[in-house]
Each structure stands twice: as structure tokens, then as C-alpha cells.
Write a structure and sequence with these properties.
The complex is a heterodimer of chains A (115) and B (118). With 115 residues, chain A is mainly beta. Chain A is built from no helices and 11 strands. In chain A, strands 2, 4, 5, 6, 9, 10 and 11 form a 7-stranded mixed beta sheet that branches. Chain B contains no helices and 12 strands. Chain B is mostly beta strands and 118 residues long. Classes of the chains: A mainly beta (115), B mainly beta (118). Chains A and B meet through strand 4, strand 5, strand 9 and strand 10 of A and strand 5, strand 6, strand 10 and strand 11 of B.
Amino acid sequence: GAGVSQSPRYKVAKRGQDVALRCDPISGHVSLFWYQQALGQGPEFLTYFQNEAQLDKSGLPSDRFFAERPEGSVSTLKIQRTQQEDSAVYLCASSPLGDRSYEQYFGPGTRLTVT
Amino acid sequence: AQKITQTQPGMFVQEKEAVTLDCTYDTSDPSYGLFWYKQPSSGEMIFLIYQGSYDQQNATEGRYSLNFQKARKSANLVISASQLGDSAMYFCAMRDPYSGGGADGLTFGKGTHLIIQP
């Protein structure tokens, strides 16, 4: 079956521009996560949804970062007034309910470069 | 404070040898989960193995096993009979309510770059 997909795969933005990154989770997966992975580092948690409810946004680095999942499936991560330090790979992951709810399936990521 | 520590930035291993990738963790919560993920150069994170803190036996998934030493807070990944396709970044991760990843998000280590040589 189809895995987690993310678009665009690559995004170049000029400093100060707004960007929107899209995540399509695996069909039926209730939980959705966003992570930020800087070059040479492990991913860092940004935010978590269960269905359409954003249950945790403690990892969002500033109020320029905003995430939504209005219908409980597709999610969008928006970054306003991008800064150079926002350059990273943004990973989306989803997980099902049930016995293997701990297993997060990751998408290929969106590589954001802010110039 | 660093919650997940991976002390090996890079490793070179001969094909067909066994590999142990180190991971230590820090948590005060009795209930937590430990994970290993593989990240090839394509960038996608691939789930390898999971160990719950209350699991009595070490987790195994095919050629992967997790050497869980709870008292030492150690969760090393063992790959048996390594293959060229095992060359990738490997990340250890933990889920607990206080690790900074939220109640369900994961906290990752910095990773180990494994290179399998023919």
C-alpha cells in the first residue's frame, strides 16, 4: 500500500517568505507527527495530531510555525517569514491505532532551504 | 540534558560481520519505549525494531536484535551478518512523556553513520 507522502520534496525560499509543507499520511492512520531534522542531526519533534486535534505543539520553535490537520487526514506545516535557521528537512510520520501504535511510519521529507 | 546518547559518529565494518551500535538513554519514567531507525541516503526513516520498558525479552526482527540492559539504561542495536545495503545512518530514539518529544513523539540521538565494506 501507499506510504506517507510529502510535498514538495524540495523547497527553496527567500528569507521572509511564507512556506507550506504538505503531508499525506497512510490511510486510516490516526496519529500524525511533524519533525525537523537539521543537517547532521537526528530529527526533533515539532507537533502531534490525533485525528484533527493538535494534542501537542511543544516542539514548535516559534510562533512563526503553525500546523493544521482540519479533516483528520492531510496535514500542512506552515512557516511564516522564513529565516535561515529554518533550513532543514521536515519529516512527517503517521501511526495507526492498535497493537503497533508505537510504530511511526515516516515520509521522505521536505528539504527546505532558506536563502 | 541529552536524553539519547549515541557515542559512535561513524563505523566501518566488513561485510558479513556482526555490528553493534551503541545507545544509552536517560529517563526517570518507568514506562517508555526504545526504537531504532535506519536512514539511507534517500532520507526516509525506516523503522527497525522496538523495545518496551516492561518487555521481559530482548526484541528481535530478522537480522536485527536489541540488547536491552535496563539497569544500565542501554539499548544497543545488533545487526547480524551485515550486508552492503545496511550502509546508512542509524538513529536510536525514545518515547516517554518527559523526553521532550511530547507524550507520543520521539526523541532521537545524533545517529551513527554505518559503512559496510566489501
